[in-house]
Structure formats: C-alpha cells, structure tokens
Specification:
The protein is α+β, with helices and mostly antiparallel strands. About 25% of the residues lie in helices and about 35% in strands. It has five helices and twelve strands.
C-alpha cells in the first residue's frame, strides 16, 4: 500500500544555494547529503548522472535537491502550465508571514499574494533557480511553526486520464474538481494570458 508522498525532487545547478533557500524559506532541515554519479545513476534516471544531492525534511514530507552533470544555471524558466510537475505548494495559515519568509530567503515574487474568492490567498514565486513554488495562506493549514508541503502540482493535456491514474496509484478517489476561467486575477497569479484551467485534487495520507 502507498501511504504517502515521501519526497519531491527539485533539479538545480547549485545545491548549496538551493538548500539555504529552502531551509530559510520553508523551514526544511537538511538530513543527508550524497555525492553520486556514474553508471548506476545514469541507468536509473536516464540522465547524465547525479553529481550532488541533499535531502531536506519538512513537517510532512521531504524535498530532494539534486544537481545533475551539465546542469544549466541560465536555463529558460518553465511556466506554470508546462506538462509535468509544475510546482510544489508551501502552505501556512498566515500568508503574510509565509510570504515574508520566502522574500527574505530571496524568492522572486511576480505579484503580491491575492485572493480568488475561495478564502485562500495565493502567490506563485520562483526560487533562485527559477523553480516555481506556490504559496498558500489558508485557515485549514496545520497550525505548525513551519510551512508544510501541501501538494505537488502537475500539468497535463488530459486531466481525466492522469487523475484516474493517480487515484488508482494511491487508492483514493478524486476529492474535488473545478474549472477556473474568465478571471483576470488568474492571469496575474500565473503570469499567463486568458487562463482557462481544469483541476482535480487527490488526497494522500500526508499531502
């Protein structure tokens, strides 16, 4: 049985810088570091091999920071709509305190946090290497001293198929769905134009 999401992987060009950022912004604790590489990693990951990796522990899950051979510091930043894992969500009850933590750690804010009429306040920010983190301030977040990793987001052209797949993987039903469009705030938050998005949420044991 799959009990929960153990970690989310983030690929970076500078592990030390990323570790400092997520330690300060999200309150994640470095727990283990490994210098790897070679044939095993290349065969496992289908990449040029892991050169350096650090596992960070959060309140409910881990973040794995990895540098691969040939990592590009000047890569083109991904958008929040590209297929694949698009962002992780850092959530707390106090959006002002959460945003302040990320700002002090060096996050780039496209816009200040805004509400969409759901009772939750949102912002998309980028870490020092342009990876996207969604910040959420909401009353239902756990009352902890540190933010928690609320969800992992994926973008897909076929949401019904992907939601069905992960629903079977974690053996839980799709908890909620929604269609969001014709709201200029969506454009502001995402940095896109004429946003029309269909979404589905699947709850796990720990996210």
């Amino acid at each position: 049985m799959i009990k929960g999401i153990h970690h989310v992987g983030v690929s970076v060009a500078d592990v030390d810088r990323a570790v400092r950022f997520y330690r300060d912004a999200a309150g994640l604790d470095p727990t283990d570091r490994a210098d790897s590489g070679g044939v095993a990693w290349t065969e496992l990951l289908g990449a040029d091999g892991c050169v350096d990796a650090t596992l960070l522990r959060g309140t409910n899950a881990y973040l794995l920071i990895t540098r691969f051979a040939g990592a590009d510091r000047n890569r083109t930043p991904p958008t929040v709509a590209e297929a694949g894992i698009t962002h992780v969500c850092s959530q707390a009850q106090d959006i002002d305190a959460l945003a302040a933590r990320y700002r002090a750690a060096g996050a780039h804010f496209r816009e200040e946090p805004v509400g969409l009429g759901t009772g939750t306040i949102y912002a998309y920010v980028r870490d020092p290497e342009q990876n996207v983190v969604e910040l959420e301030g909401t009353f239902y977040a756990p009352a902890t001293d540190r933010p928690w990793l609320a969800h992992v987001a994926m973008a897909t052209p076929d949401i019904d198929r992907l939601a069905s797949f992960y629903s079977r993987v974690v053996d839980r039903p799709v908890a909620n769905t929604g269609v969001f469009a014709d709201n200029p705030i969506l454009d502001t938050v995402t940095g896109l134009t004429d946003v029309h998005v269909k979404a589905a949420w699947i709850e796990g044991e720990n996210q």
